[in-house]
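Human: I would love a firmer grasp of how sequence relates to backbone shape in proteins. Could you go through the record with me and say what the backbone is doing? Here is the record:
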Amino acid sequence: MANELRILILEDEAAAADLLEWELRRSKIPFKARRVATKADYVRELEQFAPDVILSDYTLPNFDGLEALSLARSRIPYVPVVIVTGSINEETAVECMKAGAADYVLKEHLGRIGPAIHGALEKKQAEARLWQSEELFRLITDNVTDLIAILDLAGRRLYNSASYKQILGDPQSLRGRSSFEEIHPDDVARIKQAFQETVRTGIGQRGEFRFLLGDGSVRYIESQGSVIKDDKGTAQKVLVVARDVTERKRAEEELRRSEKRFRALIENSSDAIALLDPTGLVVYAGPSTERILGHANEDFVGSRVFELIHPEDRERTISLLNGLAQNPGHALRIECRVRHKDGSWRWMEGTGKNLLNEPSVEAIVLNYRDITERKLAEVEIQKLAAFPLYNPNPVLELSTYGGLTYFNDAAQQMARALGKSNPGEILPPDLPEIIRTCLETGRSRANVEVHQDGRTLSWSFFPILVSQVVQCYAFDVTDRLNLEAQLRQSQKMETVGQLAAGIAHDFNNILAVIQGHAELLVLEPNLPSHMAEAMKQISNAASRAAFLTRQLLTFSRRQVMQPRILDLNEVVGSVTKTLNRLLGEQIALQCNYSTNLPQVLADASMLEQLITNLASNARDAMPNGGQLIVSTFTTEIDEDYAHDHPEARAGQFVCLGVSDTGTGMDKSTLSHIFEPFFTTKEVGKGTGLGLATVYGIVKLHNGWIEVESRVGMGSTFTVFLAAARARGGTATTLTGKSAVRGGNEVVLVVEDEVALRGLMRSVLQHHGYRVLDASTGGEALTVWQGNWEKIDLLLTDIVLPDRVDGQELAKEMQKQKPRLKIVYTCEYGLELGGKQTGLREGVNLLQKPFQPLALARTVRCCLDDAGQT
């Protein structure tokens, strides 16, 4: 047990399970344990955990050890089950052992658990070896065509192979019967004598006899007997291996009869026969000449055969016949084209033999046949043979019994690539059943997937009923399956992002109303202090909720970006100043900066948030401390790498790597880590938006993120950002909280949310503005037509419920009044539809949810900005 054992513990009491694990460690058994307490968990873990040993309590709520034992025996019969119980009587213990338990241990004697496990494993290994030996014997005897029987020294049958069924019926029904019962009466005495001589001398005897079957028919049998001796050399049994030679006997008889018909067949042969003199003159032609060449016998006899041979074949054929004429008794094969009477050229295949010295013949005997159709078929066969031979994919042919009768070079290369020497080693494990089903039903079997050393092979099987073989083709679909899985993950994340954006859209409108009215009430001079405090708490809660929606918007790539040319090293250096406080004393922070790092076009605050979120995630994965490594480096992505990673693209990229020495993640967790609200932390210790925000930030920057992690081995997150050339210009955002100057201009407010529209009207009127409002684009155009000359600023949501959105509305109004000021409100930010080029937050863009002062400040800033129209 040098390797770690997987031990499944079925125990409803945690303390008892802990004590059991303690005893296992004390016994110095290397193990990995998993505890279950219910039947459903137990059944699931039998398959998923795949234990080497099961330790089961005998008494469980609504469940007992015998039922657990039965479930294990039916699903994983070669895994030992040890019953561990507080008390058990002798009768129950016997019942458990009869049911298949490897052992039982009383909880008061847990010191036996180590020896019990060792003994159970040794017992199961011995049973497995015995089963394999018996199974090998069964497979051999069940699949041979010869008749195998084991007899006692009196000739009674102790065992008969399955092949006996074809002759004498059910092999089981023959057991105990005399092996001489079915032998023909005329052969019994001779075979009995040979059997007794074998037993007496120990020397096997070969014999031939007849089986007289129940229907009166006779089968000829050829057998060989040999003695099976014990350790002392004493004969115990007799092994008889026989075979049915009835068909051979019949063939021999047929051969004798055929010799009688030989002369008649020669005269009536379907092949043509001709006799030639040494100069090629035809002196005799058989009756088939006219059928094959179209020439009547009287016309063909007396002609020179060389004159009918194709010019391209004539010289070679004349040379062959001249040589044959010089060698009496010799024979040779001739193949050439001969002119038919109708003028066509026909391929002939024949055999010539020099019987010039035979007095009864005195000629060269030429036996020939028309092989024109065969020649055409050979051309077609060569074309067909080229398909599997030069096919870049593996092509194989299998016999009825699964034997490999053909494979092409591609199959051999695939086997070698998988570390196998023979293509037969990469075929599906249930191959015999597939072949049997294909040949019995005549239907093909496609897309049979086999996993070999990390690769997935897809096999397709096609029965060829005429020849009773199955042809199969293989494709390595590993890369396609990986790409499909990555594509599905990408599509899932896109769908979840759209859902998150939709939720944030509606939630932001609600938060804007709550936060706005709360702050307006706080500004009331006569508001009681306890109510003012309550309003502040409402406002603070709304702000925290707004932060969550901003995270959702970041994940869904709907957040406002303020990109500028950055040095990633500087961003990392800036944010790591605060990481030590975030990580605590138990985690060592190491930063590896790459020199000559290209710049990137990015939002600095978003990158800082990304690094902070990844560091926070790493901290939570290292509850007992560890090391966090933050690295920057440059990489060049080529087309091959991009082909294998759907999110990647070719080019130069600046990378940020964040590695930890924490607990790591399994494949199931890795497939969900970027989903909003997915978390493995305890309730109340995480929102599940940290990595979702990271994913959104990376996507906003047109990059991608790759994760490598193994349970117990830590995790590495690598962010890929495109290298950029330096360029000027930065975004402008006004965030000050100083007093806002009002005005008396006319503002048209367009907002479909009634409560939010009312709040905006109140805030603007509070600052002295005259306000007109509308809920849709169509309604706004109606208000505009009657008041366009006095309207100074349009304050509109970019997304409106009717066909006219905010930008189209502004464009329509600016046709009539080009210098009209525009402010957009939007929870989707700059990325929506790609239409918001040139928008600046705090100048002509207001992101929801917003504070009343931010609304007043943005309107004032837009009205005062001479360059904005």
